[in-house]
Amino acid sequence: MGVTTMNKTAFKKKFLDLLTEKFAISVEDASLFEIYTTLGTLIRSSYAKDWRHTWSNYDHEQQKQVYYFSIEFLPGRMMKSNLLNMGWLDTVQAALADLGIQLDDVVAQEPDMALGNGGLGRLASCFMDSIASEGLPGNGNGIRYKYGLFKQKFIDGYQVELPNEWLARGNLWEVRRESKSVDVYFNGYVRLNKLDDGTIVPVHEDPTIVRAVPYDTGMVGFRNGTVNTLRLWDAEIPLSEESLYRSIEQRRAIQDLTSVLYPDDSNEEGRRLRLMQEYFFVSAGVQSILRHFKTKQQKMQNLDEFVAIHINDTHPAMCVAEFMRLLLDEEKMSWERAWNLTVKVMSYTNHTIMSEALEKWSVEMLQSMQPRIYQIIEEIDRRFVEEMTGVVDWELIQRTRIISDGLVHMAHLAIIGSHSTNGVAKLHSDLLKTVVLHDFYRLYPDRFNNKTNGIAERRWLQLANPSLSTVLDKTIGQTWRYEANDLHLLMNYSEDKAVHKQLQQAKQANKERLAAFILQETGVRINEHAIFDVQIKRLHAYKRQLLNLLHILTLYFEIKEEGFTDIQPRVFIFGAKAAPSYHYAKSIIKVINEVGKMIQEDPEVSDKLSIVFLEDYSVSLAEVIIPAADVSEQISLASKEASGTSNMKLMLNGAITIATLDGANIEIRDAVGDENIVIFGLTESQVYDYYEQANYHAYSYYEALPKLKRVVDSFVDGTIANIYQEGKEIFDSLLTYNDEFFVLRDYEAYVNAQKEIEKAYQNQERWLKMSLINVANAGRFSADYTVMKYAEDIWQIEAKPKSRKA
Ligand code: 26Y
């Protein structure tokens, strides 16, 4: 792209001209926000041509494209990533510095785009970056929520949720495309009109019509001229129906549709609104794909050679039925032909084995909201049962059919209606085959496959960790910046003391940066030479932040009551949001905060231990925490974390992982070897053995281990102030309700593993080598490779040869 040739002088001139044009102001008088707006406008207009070319080339070359449907996208900030990918970063940084401006102050003006809760949404955004960077024809399709994921505050140690008005000052990156709007129908009823020739024409009577307006954002590839599209839909009142929606309530109901992101990653809440959101972006997206396809006058008959639709978790599973609806009702295709195309076009990723997250909708709700879609699902179900009858046993059919017990099983719809179902790490994909979706595996063994998750390594290393990046450039050259596996070259320096020293200095610089941030945000001064021990992820019982807390309390009592003094100082850093309705998770936040306070106020321990629970965990916050981490906490109960991706980000930044054999932790162990990771706890098969034999007795661990008893009792015996109800709730979850996630069972192994971490850290020579080996082997988790595997195995799409300007 022309932009890569931009030099400092030319940039300065353009920038200053645009600043004058937009704000009639000099750079000395401009506010940071004016500077941000000017720079953003310049960036966008500079990739606009490439954006247009990318589009038209795909059409012109009749390339097959994938559309990644996801109810969450979590890109974070985009300015720096765009600069990096355009090849502008260094030039702009230097040019602004000449003008007395720090780029980092400018980029901080951008609000995080947080249209996601956690791993699923962040994965979608890492994929968008990698798809563009690999030059693959792929687009995102989702919802433009007016409010992003709630802003988290702690008041008296409790999580409080505030609205996140990310659009308040506008959004530089999006383009509203009024002309591409489509109508989405809800409610009403369907009359089947029989024509004279016997054909049946369904007519949707008395519908509520919502206008879906797309906002497109360019997804800039890494120095390859590719700019793909993330299309997010907003709900509006249709112009022609203005008069019908007169009352404030009716208008509000429509606007509410895209108002808030469902702030919950497991529990049930606002179910009806969520179902509406799902159909809304599914229908708008599928309609716009087919409409575009038709304008290019391609034949519907071989749609599958041009279009792939990816269903990211069950939320967009109605793609299957909506695609059928359009082919049947609009294109008048036969059922058989339409079904054949649908299965070839669709593919599905499962992201969780937690049964409460596998969506099921009541027949009444779906039928009343989507009468035609329900009819089609009913017919898919009927034909499925018919096809399987006599082939497999009746019970199996009952367990796998889409509609049963008054519920519509969305995962069943996604599996039956697609050609590929994948899990997100080896273990997870195996568990899908053997346990969670075993019945389906028996029916469709060839549809099941694994695609281990990956991360956008450019963001998580090049952007987030310039100190380490510089060391890498000096040591192994720059090819790792676009070929992540070249990080492996670092293995040649695994014993090199000089390189170790540089890695140590880079880590220290990042720790100081984080410490300064913590001081500024919380007023707490932490020991910059302590071990930085990090657990960052959604607050969930299965992720076991509680186990981490039990270990912290163990250290606390060892110092307070057993006189241990010889302990390596540690700062425990947490970042986590709890779903607003997830009471138990919120209690854990409260208790961690109170323990943090207790430690901080106690001079006997505060120089050895501290807890920093940072408010409002986000992509941007992660970018400051991760480079500074020494220890990566990946301690979910084995079998519960589908993959995890913070484990990959932390490893890439040289943190040592303490982990259970869960999700992608297993593949991290395989990559670095047993000596360079600390593994503990029950394995997945041991967990399943407990389930089978129903012989876990949490109480016996509490009784047998005095240290554990002391810690658990502290939740209810007044040791920790201000936690009356919360302490009791946690205590009961462990003992009265028999500890669903085996926290007490894994406690001793975890405490020992933590001792091993401490010992390894105290031998800095060993530690630095471990850290180096982690960085060197993190390349395989680049999402660049992951999306290439999706492209080859699932989507059957291809990149045109790259013109990367390295
Ligand atoms: C339907 C509703 C209850 C629901 C809402 C959000 C269900 C699930 C979710 C989100 C799930 C999610 O974020 N899963 C995570 O996906 C990551 C990317 O694959 C994995 O790394 C991570 O282990 C998994 O928990």
From TrEMBL:
Protein keywords: Allosteric enzyme, Carbohydrate metabolism, Glycosyltransferase, Pyridoxal phosphate, Transferase
Record has ATP-binding as a keyword: no
Highest taxon in the source lineage: Bacteria
Recorded GO CC terms: cytoplasm
Reaction it catalyzes: [(1->4)-alpha-D-glucosyl](n) + phosphate = [(1->4)-alpha-D-glucosyl](n-1) + alpha-D-glucose 1-phosphate
GO molecular function: glycogen phosphorylase activity; pyridoxal phosphate binding
Family the UniProt entry places it in: Belongs to the glycogen phosphorylase family.
NCBIfam families: P_ylase (TIGR02093)
Cited function: Allosteric enzyme that catalyzes the rate-limiting step in glycogen catabolism, the phosphorolytic cleavage of glycogen to produce glucose-1-phosphate, and plays a central role in maintaining cellular and organismal glucose homeostasis. Phosphorylase is an important allosteric enzyme in carbohydrate metabolism. Enzymes from different sources differ in their regulatory mechanisms and in their natural substrates. However, all known phosphorylases share catalytic and structural properties.
Protein name stated in the entry: Alpha-1,4 glucan phosphorylase
